[in-house]
Write a structure and sequence with these properties.
single chain; 635 residues; alpha+beta; Alpha-Beta Plaits; Formate dehydrogenase/DMSO reductase fold; five-stranded antiparallel β-sheet; three-stranded mixed β-sheet; 18 helices; globular
Length: 635
């Protein structure tokens, strides 16, 4: 337990708690009522059974930030990092700023922010490992790095960049509200260190002495509608109409005339010159997500056509029961295994992959993993039956047919469930570029076009590419490509008019990756035209089908790479060197990232060796393995 000194200054001690009973969202500030059995329990901080006698222990607490007083001295950052023993590249609380106007009327607004310990924490619902808990004590949202396996999804869904993925360790950690200090009656370390009385802390909505406002947001703070955060603001100084981020993010905050609120709009800092940046585009550490999503969607589309599709469209019957049938199933299974391996090794702790099933109740990531697992079981069982049929064809045909139908149904269930949540996990409010029906269309399009073309390419060397089959598969591919094209047009039209980070993402896509974006759209148009040509002239399949497959795959890879590379999340503004994506990229290019004091790491997760994985598995006691399995299946 944190040891309180005999004499603590008054500004460092908790007080208050007699304010409103409901917060500005209408939710009760008291976390549990009197007499609830959850009251009086110890937080067991570092194994200590101490229980605080704080009368406000079961009320939602939060930070109060007075932007009028903040001088950007970074004392709060330093105190937080010192208390939590954070490395130079990580900070649970950070200070950024925005500025506007022209000399002599220049405005600057400093913003200090940590975790908001929200009423509706999306990090908790998004985490597949259940590493997050919202405690009744103080309403704190706490995260256990020991449970985390380093997928980083919580860093995607949080609009405020509160969870921090430590790429050196491969796990996420975050602000813990200094609950150990709260238990002994002290405010968090960052608040106690603030020299300008800009930061305060207490029961939310219980406005501290000397404050006149408790606003839900200020310029530069992402929309509180997403999570209902428990940070309140005061900002009375008049600012310029346009307040610009000083980091490289092409966003400024524009004051609306009706209410005086600020909205994020595009700030084209780098002009409109187009670039290729293909190496940067295709060299991202998100390549694992590209490989997994495309391979899983391809396998799902091909399997659906080979099973359910064959029952509807007679030309697909030519692929049943022969060498082409077996080859296509091996190709699907191999691609799916490749994608799953790439995704798993992308984790900070790949040996903890089984924890991805823990949060099936809430997490779309856990549900996607479960769905893909079911699909893998269906595909694997169907493939095993196909191998058995080729080795021992005289086995009971009725039994084989019944089992194949069963595994086809299992695979189809996995495709439907996993595919739905594969889309849903990217429909994130904190990433407007993704939160558009273009995401749905792109994923479905990849399944249709790539799945159909896989079957077509496999059918060619076996002489099964009849005109009927080619016309059917080319038609399915054309449908997928047309859907993708319509979604691209709608996406570009809608993003241009957005007052959000989505407009900035579209700007990045059409400037930083402008030529690559044009190339991708050209490949998409060419693939669509070629697929329609094959529908009209299926006799040219020997030449056109492989070319179509190459074009469709190339446009899919480029499109998916742009999907990950161009996205700009709703995050707090940074400074010139801290929390600035532009400086991070510069530091990696010129070698500054090799200096620990700069606070920039090389891109990528903590490297994990297969030998370490095997050693960890062998050293894990059997009792722990059984306990983990029981937890998975009992929830």
């Amino acid at each position: 337990m944190y040891q309180r000194r005999e004499i603590e200054p008054e500004y460092a001690c908790l007080s208050g708690g007699s304010g409103p009973i409901h917060n500005q969202w209408g939710k009760a500030i008291e976390t549990v009522p009197e007499g609830d059995p959850r009251r009086g329990q110890s937080l067991n901080i570092n194994g200590d059974s101490f229980v605080s006698d704080n009368p406000n222990r079961y009320k939602q607490h939060g930070f109060f930030f007075n932007a009028d007083n903040c001088i950007a001295c970074h004392a709060c950052e330093t105190a937080c990092s010192e208390k939590n023993d954070n490395p130079a590249h990580q900070a649970f609380r950070s200070v950024g700023f925005i500025e506007g106007g022209t000399f002599p009327n220049v405005s600057r607004l400093n913003i200090s922010l940590a975790c908001n310990h929200c009423d509706d924490p999306v990090c908790l619902k998004g985490c597949p490992t259940r590493a997050y808990t919202k405690f009744t004590e103080y309403g704190a949202v706490l995260q256990n790095p020991d449970i985390c396996f380093g997928c980083g999804y919580c860093t995607w869904v949080c609009p405020y960049n509160a969870p921090q993925l430590d790429q050196a360790k491969g796990v996420v950690s975050k602000c813990n509200m200094c609950v150990d200090r709260l238990e002994v009656g002290l405010k968090p370390a960052c608040v106690s260190a603030c020299v300008g009385k800009a930061l305060d802390f207490g029961v939310v909505e219980d406005i501290p002495e000397g404050r006149v406002q408790a606003k839900l947001e200020i310029p530069g703070f992402p929309s509180p509608e997403i999570t209902h955060p428990n940070t309140r603001f005061q900002q009375t100084r008049t600012l310029a109409r346009d307040m610009h981020r000083v980091d490289s993010v092409p966003i400024k905050f524009h004051r609306k005339d009706d209410k005086g609120d600020y909205v994020p709009v595009l700030d084209p800092k780098n002009g409109f010159e187009r670039h290729w940046n293909l190496k940067k585009l295709l060299g991202s550490h998100e390549n694992s997500h590209i490989a997994f999503t495309l391979s899983a969607q391809l396998a799902a589309g091909a399997f659906a056509l080979l099973t359910a599709g064959a029952a509807i469209f007679s030309p697909l019957g030519a692929l049943q029961g022969g060498a082409a049938w077996l080859s296509s199933l091996f190709a699907m299974f191999g691609l799916l295994m490749f994608g799953m391996f790439k995704l798993n090794m992308h984790l900070g702790r790949p040996h903890r992959f089984y924890r991805g099933y823990y949060n099936l109740k809430y997490s779309p990531v856990a549900k996607e993993i479960a769905g893909v697992t079911v699909f893998t079981m269906g595909l694997g069982g169907y493939l095993a039956l196909a191998v058995a049929h080729s080795v021992v064809p005289e086995l009971n045909p009725a039994l084989q047919g019944g089992l194949r139908a069963l595994f086809a149904a299992i695979g189809g269930l996995g495709i439907g469930y996993g595919g739905y949540y594969m889309i849903k996990l990217y429909r994130i409010k904190a990433r407007p570029f993704w939160n558009h029906w273009h995401t749905d269309a792109s994923f479905i399009s990849s399944a249709l076009s790539l799945g159909a073309l896989l079957l077509g390419v496999v059918a060619l060397p076996f002489g099964l590419a009849s005109e009927g089959l080619v016309r059917l598969l080319a038609g399915v591919a054309a449908t997928g490509l047309a859907l993708e094209g319509a979604a691209v047009l709608a996406h570009s039209r809608d993003l241009r008019g957005q007052k959000s980070e989505g407009a900035a993402s579209f700007y990045i896509q059409t400037t930083t990756y402008g030529h690559s974006y044009t190339l991708r759209n050209g490949l998409l148009a060419a693939a669509l035209a070629l697929s329609l040509a094959l529908v009209a002239a299926p006799g040219a399949a020997l030449v056109l089908l492989p070319l179509l497959a190459v074009l469709a795959l190339a446009q899919s890879v480029l499109g998916r790479a742009l999907f990950f590379a161009a996205v700009i999340p709703t995050t707090m503004p940074g400074g010139f060197f801290w929390r600035n994506p532009g400086f991070v990229e510069h530091a990696r290019q010129v070698g500054l990232a090799d200096m620990p004091q700069v606070g920039v790491l090389r891109e990528g997760h903590h490297p994990f060796k297969v030998g370490e994985l095997l050693e960890t598995i062998m050293k894990t006691p059997m009792s722990e393995k059984i306990a983990q399995a029981r937890r998975i299946f009992t929830g």
